[in-house]
Structure formats: C-alpha cells, structure tokens
Amino acid sequence: MQNEISRTLAALTIGLAGGAIFYYLNLPLPWMLGSFALTLIIAIPFGYIDVDKKLRKLALPILGVLIGCSFKPEIIQEIHKWPIGIFLVLLYTVFTTFVGYKYLTKIAKWDKVTALFSSPPGGLAELVFIGADSGADERRMILTHSIRIAMVVTVSTLLLRFYFNIEFTTISISNPPDMIVTIIDWVILFSCAVVGMYLGLKLKLPGGALFGALILSGFVHITSITEANLPLWMVAFAQIVLGSSLGVRFNGITKSELKNTVKHAFIMGTLMISIALLIAIIMGPIINFDSRALFLSMAPGGFTEMLLLAIAIGIESAFIATSHSVRIIVIFLCVPLSSYLLKKIK
Predict the structure, then answer these.
(1) CA 159 from chain center: how many Å?
(2) Contact 263, 88 (CB under 8 A)
(3) Distance (Å, rounded) from C-alpha 292 to C-alpha 270?
(4) In this prediction, what percent of the chain has a pLDDT beyond 90?
(5) CA–CA separation, 68 and 196 (whole Å)
(6) What does the alpha-carbon distance between residue 237 and residue 227 come to, in Å, rounded to a whole number?
(7) pLDDT band, very low/low/confident/very high, at 284 (cuts 50, 70, 90)
(8) N or C: which terminus of the chain carries fewer CB neighbours within 10 A?
C-alpha cells in the first residue's frame, strides 16, 4: 500500500513538473501533454512510477463536468447538422477497423483475436477487458492502444496548431467577471460529478464516470439551471492525473516490444490519423461543417483527450462528445460479436 502511494506521488510530482514546464513555454494543453511527456520519458527507462486507478476515477468526473459546461442553449440551433457528421464518424470507424485488422493479420502476422481487439479506433478500457477474456494478447493489445492514443493526442495537437492554424487557449471555461457563483451552483456541479460518476460506472456507460458526469453537467448547462464553471486549479489537477496516467502506461517496455508492437502500432496510428484528416478536409466543405470539429470527432485518441482538445480550441465540443460516445458504443457492440463469429468460423 505504501509502495503504491509513493509510486503515485512520484508520478504526479513528475507530471506536475512537466505541466509547469509546458505552461511556462506556452505550449498547447500544457498540464495534460506536459505531464504525459515527462512521465513517459521517466517511465520507459526506470519503470517505477504509476498512478493509482482510484485517483484517475476521481479526475474523470471532474473532466466530465468541465466538458458539460460547454453545452450552451445555443447548441440546440446547431443539432440539425449533426446526423451526417456522426454518420461519417461511424463510416470511418468501420473502415479503419477493417483496414487495421487486415494489416495486423496479413502483414504484422498477429493472431486474429488480438488483431481484432487492437484495430478499432477507440474504446481502450472496454476492449482490453473483453479482449483479455476472449483470448487476445493483453500486453500487446494495451500497448497498441496506448501508443495510438499518445500518438493521436500529440499529432492532433500539432495539426490543429500548425495545419489548421488554431491558437490554443488555457482550458478553463471561465466564469464572466460579473457573474456571482453561489453555493447552490457549487452544489449542482458537485452533484453532477458524484451522481454522474456513480451512474456512469453503474450503467457501464462509454467513458464511464466521465460520461455520466458529462451528461448531467451538459443537461444543467444547456437548460440554464446553472451557468457556473469549474476553477482553473481543479481542471489542471484533473489533466495532470490524466496525462500522468497515460505516460506511466509505458512502464518498463522491453526492447522486443519496441521492435515489434511499437512499430506496428505507429503504422496503425499514422493510418488512422491520415484517414481522419483526409475525410475531414474533403467532407467538411461539402456538408458545410467545420473540418476541425469533424477531424476531432474522428481522431482516434482517447475519449477524454479529444474532448479536452475540443475545449482548448473552442469548437463544437458537444458534437465531438456525442460522436465519440456513439463510436465507442458501436465498437463495444460490434467487436465482441465479431470475435465470437471468428471463433465459430474456426
């Protein structure tokens, strides 16, 4: 127990330092990407640091409430544009999963079950749990998805900054200067986090605790029950926990894994990002939709990470949240069924 606490404290201290460095250098998403980068650099050679899963569960509903704060009443006027965009996200999900599966089985020569659970562009937590029970190589599967997420978060940030020429803002949906945040507002936000976390885990919603809090926070904000937002320090804390959790996944990676799994995971990540960017650039103008939002709705990073990017650039957070939720549900329903059919065919 004491060892676990010391490893977590070490990871968070490193994460805080990395976030502070990125913040000082005025880099995008400093607290999340900075904490991720520095814990990754330390974790690969030393393999000691870790982040307690309970702490991550505490951070997720905070981020869920934060994302829900972006659901404003004005969104209702834009919902009519969503169906085509969500259809493109689903089309992208099916296509990239198929291409990824073919690549991993035909070129990488992985077994079919491991390839199937390593191919979808999303759903790390759900796929790892089900895939392990289905006989997939758990270490290879986790590593592939972890590299995909890390790669997509980094590359997407660079694309948004330099290709789409977007200036990032500090992630804090700040309250207006003249707004008085009352104790009732704080109770509402706290209730969204606690009740949302419980419902998200109990009902096994995609994104779990985060998604449950997001739904409740989105509801109270879109209906104007409250207009209050979270303070910066709380948002920064949640991002440091998230970034550090992502970095420590690479604890003690071996040379053989670096030569095999990492190489194929990078190819998969490059393929997924390229297809998402291509669809967004071509289809955005055709369907009269923001290409940046369309890209983020498809970009196969983590559910939380992509929504944080959406908030950082201030575009279509509600649409992106909905798209990723639908995608995870489809993956969650279709991949286990496909695995079952594969075994039947054998």
Answers:
(1) 17
(2) no
(3) 18
(4) 23
(5) 11
(6) 22
(7) very high
(8) N
Q: List, in order, residues 6 or more apart from 266 with CB less than 8 Å away.
A: 147, 151
Residue 15 in contact with residue 244, Cβ under 8 Å?
yes
The mean pLDDT of 14-41, rounded to a whole number, is 85
pLDDT of residue 179: 54
**DSSP type of residue 172:** -
Radius of gyration of the chain (CA): 20
Phi, psi dihedral angles at 165 (to 5 degrees): 55, 50
Spatial separation of the C-alpha atoms in residues 335 and 182, rounded to whole Å: 46
The pLDDT value given to residue 126: 60
**Per-residue pLDDT tens digits for 31-56:** 877 888 899 889 888 877 888 878 87
Gap between the Cα atoms of 218 and 141, Å rounded: 33
- The C-alpha atoms of residue 46 and residue 9 are separated, in whole angstroms, by 15
